[in-house]
Amino acid sequence: MTGSDSMALPLFRIDFRPEVPPYPIRLPDIKSGGEYYFETESGLRYQVMFAKKKSSYLENIVNFSVLGEEYDDEYSVTNRGEIYRVIATVVEIIRIYHENHAYSTGYEFSGEFKPGNEKRETSIRTLLYYRKAKAITNPHWKVELTGNRVLVHRKRKKMMTCIR
């Protein structure tokens, strides 16, 4: 990468391949849009949204959830053996989003707490997301677990100075 391309770094490892196929994805009407949808085999409909952080327009908050008012307790309805395909689909959506926002410098996401585990510092889902992010993220990116949040940031280049 040279010139202006040095800012655009792939988010995922070059050798990354999903373990299971993602569900079909409904892309935003506008290529640079931030809302994606998919439906599982059991009929659960998910929305994945990207929001820009207030502190930096190049950093994104990723939010995904089950759509429908009847799903107040997301944990009970999503535990249908579809979690690996759901995660593969969310990863694919993040990959597509990043292709259209290649200069993004960060992503943040967190998982809901399972009922009864609210006193934990980090939810079981967040730990799952963290392990997945560590396994698939390109080495030019840093993956951190902070409280109940997974932070993925582009590593800063070390500045080299020339002394003549």
* Estimated structural class: alpha+beta
Radius of gyration: 17 Å
Q: What is the total domain count?
A: 1
| Mean pLDDT, all residues | 86
Count of alpha and pi helical runs: 3
Model description:
The protein is an alpha+beta fold. It has one domain (3-154). The chain is 22% helix and 26% strand. It has helices at residues 74-78, 83-100, 124-136; strands spanning 25-26, 35-39, 45-53, 56-66, 106-109, 141-146, 149-154. Strands 1-2-3-4-5-7-6 form a 7-stranded mixed sheet, covered by helices on one side. The chain is globular and about 45 Å long. The relative contact order is 0.17. The model is unreliable at 1-5 and 73-77 (pLDDT under 50).
List the helices and strands and how they pair.
Blueprint: E1 25-26, E2 35-39, E3 45-53, E4 56-66, H1 74-78, H2 83-100, E5 106-109, H3 124-136, E6 141-146, E7 149-154
Parallel strand pairs: 4-5
Antiparallel strand pairs: 1-2, 2-3, 3-4, 5-7, 6-7
